[in-house]
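User: Second chain of the day. Same drill as before.
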Amino acid sequence: MKAGQCFFHIGFPKTGTSYLQSNLENNRKNMKAAGILYPQNLPVQRDLILSFLERPEEHSRSRAGPGRGTREAVRAAARKARESIERELEASCYDKLVLSFEDYAGVFESASLNIERIQDFLFGVAEEVFIICYVREHRAHTISYAQQRIKMGNLVIDDVLDHFPVLFRPALERYMSLFGRDAMIVRAYDSAGMVGGDLVADFRAACGLEDVPFSLCGAEGGINRSISLEAAGIGSAANARRPNFQDGRHTRPNPERATLHPLLESIPGAPFSLSGDVLASVREKARDDAAWLAEQFGIDFREYPDPTPAGIPEWSNETLEAVGVLLNDTKKERDENEQKVENLHRENEAYLDMLKECVNTCLETDHLTLAEDLLDRLTERVGWQKDLLKARMRLRLRQGRPAEAMAIKQDLFRP
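Assistant: Same format as last time:
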């Protein structure tokens, strides 16, 4: 059974998508009671994107879970996602369906996209389809997104202009070509213009969910914590030497890379920003995109005030103390782990010596079956050590198998 309306939220990165999704999930039961379906879990919506692709196994999302490395497994996940949503719709009568995921905005970057599949699916589950998204002033967006990518190990500060700004027009034009201008609900990611000054309240108003009881959880910006300008400098330098992925490919994690973002978040300092020259370049590169957003949706980022450019890193005593404490604690933890490994090695050696003594006792008391079992376990664990070979030679003699004992003896004296 189709829903009356579908609100398809294409969440551009760093426009509050995680915050919005956590609140939608937190209020899913209230929405369901009001005849509004928000699918049960985010993996379903994550995998739904794969069903729009001719070759879903090539998409980065296909590697987001265990057992998805094969072509068949990836395609099965895509089918399962669609079927899960369709089953939920059939189980009850819903007035509205709400879907939300970040990659719904970036799906057009995939070479294997079958664009008609998006249209067919959405009109297959709802009578009326609306595309809703939030766009952000390009310089503020670049500051926020670059900071996130530096923190997560995927960007060097000097390379910002190679990856930014993100332009909103390409994805929005493609959705407009599928569903028409009247189906597009495009809002500015700016609390000053949001209903109640809050993203969730604004989204609810845009989708007609105001009458649904909502309990807010978390704080916007609290899910992805910011880092200081000094921490970003450290993170950027680490990314240059120890990037998150090898050869720039997200399929090959770098084994030498540690998880640094919790440490970077703990380093105080000046607020993160980008240089005035970089911000000016971002504005120029986004000029046409900003003009198009103003013309199509009345969102004029050209009138927005200039963001504060990055200053000179302060390296205050507080910052330096935090870095010193992190270095100390990291070295201390490393020393403790090395000691634990050494202790485990000693305990393992003592355990093996005990088992070897048990083998000798079994041989002396003619418990030959137990002796052989222990020898097999020891050999599997430590290999063909000389004392184990001698014990096995004694075992073969006790078992009345002198030829095998002689062969083992030859192995013992073989260079």
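The longest strand covers residues 126-135.

User: Great, on to the next one.
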